[in-house]
Amino acid sequence: MTLNPSGISDASPRTLFQPTPRQIYLLMTVGFLSVGYAIYLRYLAIEHAPVSLACQAGLETWLCRTFRLVVVLYNNSVFGWVALAAAALNLLRPSIVFCVIALAAAGFGLVLQNAGLAGLAVALLILSLARRAPAKEFP
């Protein structure tokens, strides 16, 4: 790397990590679906007394199985930890896959009251947009 007389590097700067329009549509779809399904589970299953009591009594439907799974995952803060791990990996090495995983888990975490870790994950996702894109490898 050489410096020109003004002290600026002559190396071409890499661009920032910017998802393509198609990837942005994917991110929007995943975000809306994860938040929407989390709202559905929270307000129509977990906090709705008749459904919650029926599921706790042993009703075997897909909603009750999902209810029990979400409660176990919530008790262990899995949504927040997964969102935080994926967002940290996305910050280190920007990738649409990590971004989608972090966004989906953060959507669930924010709605299902794992807001501390999920909020930190969203902040890391925002920071990852200011990160430079990975350099392309040449053969």
Fold and architecture overview:
With 139 residues, the chain is mainly alpha-helical. It has helices spanning 21-46, 49-56, 62-75, 78-92, 96-111, 115-128. It has one domain. It is built from six helices and no strands. The mean pLDDT is 87.
Percent range for β-strand residues: under 5%
* Helix-strand category: mainly alpha
Task: Please provide the ordered H/E string of secondary-structure elements.
Answer: HHHHHH
Compute the gyration radius: what is it? Answer: 20 Å
**Which descriptor suits the 3D outline?**
elongated
For the termini, the CA-CA separation is 21 Å
The number of helical runs is: 6
Total E-strand runs: 0
**What number of domains?**
1
Largest sheet: none
Low-confidence stretches: none
Overall pLDDT = 87
What is the helix fraction of residues, given as a range?
55-70%
